[in-house]
Design goal:
about 475 residues, 2 domains, five-stranded mixed β-sheet, 20 strands, disordered N terminus
């Protein structure tokens, strides 16, 4: 169990909105659009995250380089505390700044079980601003790696990825909220099976998760998301975010098949809008958790900040379920769609994605869903529509306050009084973001609707958020 340090007063103040929903915001958030993949975080040109406009951001989101969240713990790393005595000891080496076990003699399956006891015999500090990981690698794989990578050690390779991951965090409006620290590398015999990576904390108490290179030879330069300019495999960074931070794939929110659309959509909506790519949106789609993009987006940044403020960074019972394509069911109590006067008295049909029965599922992952009509509404004279949270996502959330990705996508079909039709896809992220920014009670959303002439790839997906007083 981690030590509990004295919490600064500022940290308690910042945590209050997440615990009580008491923060009243008076500014706007207008998510900056970004198109295509950004440059790697090498500092040369074209930063990998769009620069927010300060005048449009909430009061505590002042600039992309500010550090509004104070550290909850002192910077000094404390020495581990001995908890109990063990009759054996596996010695480690420090190789390229990484503790390494098994470098001289790879560990057997039995050795590995003993090592767990040895590691757990001392209590390591678990900071509230850091996720910790342990890496396992088979002897044949680490040997081949050093042969095919010009003699570079695997430890050096890992530390470079740790640094790049943390740099992506630093590029966000909330830097220093969560860093990644790879505690150690364990070299094992070729036949050894390490524990399951997402729940490694059950075996090694000082690690939030693990990652294993034990089955197939690993050639990073041949990996599909390897950037040779910086020597980073962003596919591996994506997997690290799963394993250590327990973050879900945002592309699980995609809706990919017209086979499961209701008749009102198949007849009235053009082909390019019958599918939805949550990962291709030019506002929040550019994120490491979408097909190994080379940046951490605002959604992921707020998702991990939320855990810091709720002190759940190392609570695997709360974080691990999210990695299985579950998203926090944390949305404002009331949402107003501010369509505008051009949509006065327009009819609004809201459809929600739902999970298809197991025996009716096609094989592709993005065909596990169908759209079902969940509500028919009429806008007010000024073109607004206000709904409570239970009218937006009808599928009951589970006891962990999560909602499945299969149930987390919406389609809006808007028909004006003169018969013209407009539409837009949305998903749970669009509602999580304002909630995490403090709009827990009421949020107004101002956004564009698409017509048949619009292309989803170039469509302006941005949403302007405000509270009721600034509508």
């Amino acid at each position: 169990m981690a030590r509990k340090e004295q919490e600064p007063q500022k940290m308690r103040e910042l945590r209050a909105p997440f615990q009580k929903g008491a923060l009243a915001l008076s500014a706007f958030l207008f998510l900056a659009a970004s198109s295509g993949y950004g440059k790697p975080p090498d500092g040369r040109e074209n930063p990998i995250i769009p620069t927010p406009t300060p005048s449009l951001l909430p009061i505590f989101l002042t600039s992309p380089t500010s550090t509004p969240i104070p550290e909850a713990f002192p910077t000094a790393i404390k020495e581990p505390t001995e908890l109990f005595i063990i009759p054996f000891n596996f010695e480690s080496k420090i190789i390229d700044s990484m503790e390494t076990f098994g470098d001289d003699k790879p560990l057997s399956q039995t050795d590995l079980l003993k090592l767990y006891k040895q590691l757990n015999s001392k209590e390591q500090e678990m900071r509230n601003d850091t996720y910790y990981g342990t890496i396992f690698i088979a002897k044949k794989i680490i040997d081949e790696f050093q042969i095919t990578n010009g003699g570079e050690t695997f430890q050096e390779f890992l530390k470079r990825h740790e640094k790049a991951f943390n740099q992506m965090v630093q590029e966000q409006p909330y830097p220093d909220t969560n860093k990644l620290q790879l505690r150690r590398l364990i070299v094992v015999e070729d036949a050894v099976e390490p524990p399951y990576c997402y729940t490694l904390n059950n075996e090694i108490k000082d690690s939030d998760g693990g990652w294993s290179f034990v089955e197939n030879l690993y050639f990073p330069k041949k990996a599909p998301y390897y950037d040779k300019n910086v020597g980073i495999d962003y596919g591996l960074e994506h997997e690290f975010a799963h394993a250590f931070l327990h973050l879900p794939d945002q592309y699980s929110l995609d809706f990919g098949s017209s086979d499961w659309l209701p008749e009102s959509i198949t007849e009235n909506v053009p082909a390019q809008w019958k599918k939805y790519s949550a990962s291709s949106r030019n506002d929040i789609g550019q994120d490491l958790m979408n097909n190994a993009n080379q940046r951490i987006g605002i959604y992921t940044n707020l998702q991990i900040l939320r855990r810091v403020l709720q002190e759940e960074v190392h609570n695997n019972k709360k974080t691990v379920p999210e990695v299985w394509w579950n998203f926090p069911y944390e949305i404002p109590e009331k949402t107003t769609f501010a369509f505008g006067k051009d949509y006065s008295r327009a009819a609004v049909d809201i459809f929600q994605s739902v999970e298809v029965d197991e025996d009716k599922r096609p094989s592709e992952y993005n065909r596990k869903k169908k759209l079902e009509l969940i509500g028919n509404y009429t806008n007010s004279e000024d073109g607004n529509l206000t709904l409570t949270k239970d009218k937006l996502f009808l599928t009951p959330n589970n006891p962990d306050n999560l909602i499945k990705a299969e149930n987390s996508t919406l389609f809006l079909l808007v028909t004006t009084t003169d018969g013209k039709q407009y539409f837009r896809w949305m998903d749970i992220r669009d509602f999580n973001i304002p909630f995490w920014l403090g709009y827990q009670e009421q949020i107004n959303m101002n956004f564009k609707l698409a017509s048949g002439k619009d292309d989803p790839k170039t469509f302006d997906w941005r949403i302007k958020y405000s509270n009721e007083e600034n509508r």
